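Researcher: I'd like a candidate sequence for this fold, 221 residues long. If you have to choose between options at a position, lean toward the conservative one.
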């Protein structure tokens, strides 16, 4: 990308994180962004002011931020290329799903518009990343999210795994070992009271997972 600088990457990373929190998370706050990006809240506050001055966001009281059309265009582009890169790494290069997010974060800034178009063709225009997160359309329209947390289902229900909200390698490895990957057919066998574990059956095997983990796995009926 001509004229691509470290500041450009920093701007893209902020707008990507704001998109994730605004469209897929609990909303944008200074503390939430600091956690998402692994930086100090003071650094976030300064960057939000600059992004507001540059017309990428509307910076509100208490650190809240909302993408402007200009910011949304960049945020969508980066998230889209990140998730296409994840599909490339898993589908074509055969990398494990717990390793691709970190690698895709490096590639997302280097993918050009022409490479993005070619990725869409080669990959068959995928709609979700390997972890079940939607690949946003290039025009910025909100992608459909039919999934709900597994924790909301009751004993006796059957469902199909849609995705995993946290792209933490250790969590993905553990879920992969249990067979709880997107597309897996599961049955909810039991839910212990008072926040106890949820027992699910996958491929004829039963596993008890914590309620916290059941909130991270999303499913469709």
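Model: Candidate sequence:
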């Amino acid at each position: 990308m001509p004229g691509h600088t470290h500041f450009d990457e920093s701007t893209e990373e902020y707008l990507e994180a704001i998109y994730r929190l605004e469209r897929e998370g609990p909303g944008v706050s200074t503390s939430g962004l600091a956690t998402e990006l692994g930086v100090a809240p003071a650094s976030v506050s300064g960057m939000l002011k600059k992004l507001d001055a540059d017309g990428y966001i509307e910076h509100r009281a208490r650190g809240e931020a909302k993408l402007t059309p200009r910011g949304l265009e960049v945020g969508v582009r980066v998230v889209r290329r990140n998730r296409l890169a994840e599909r490339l790494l898993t589908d074509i290069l055969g990398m494990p799903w717990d390793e691709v997010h970190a690698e895709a974060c490096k590639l997302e800034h280097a993918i050009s518009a022409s490479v993005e178009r070619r990725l869409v063709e080669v990959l068959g225009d995928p709609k979700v990343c390997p972890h079940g997160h939607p690949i946003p359309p290039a025009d910025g329209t909100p992608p459909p999210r039919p999934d709900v947390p597994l924790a909301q289902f009751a004993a006796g229900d059957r469902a199909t795994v849609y995705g995993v909200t946290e792209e933490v390698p250790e969590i993905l490895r553990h879920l992969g070992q249990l067979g709880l990957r997107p597309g897996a057919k599961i049955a909810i066998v039991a839910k212990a009271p008072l926040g106890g574990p949820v027992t699910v059956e996958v491929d004829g095997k039963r596993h008890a997972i914590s309620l916290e983990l059941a909130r991270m796995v999303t499913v469709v009926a």
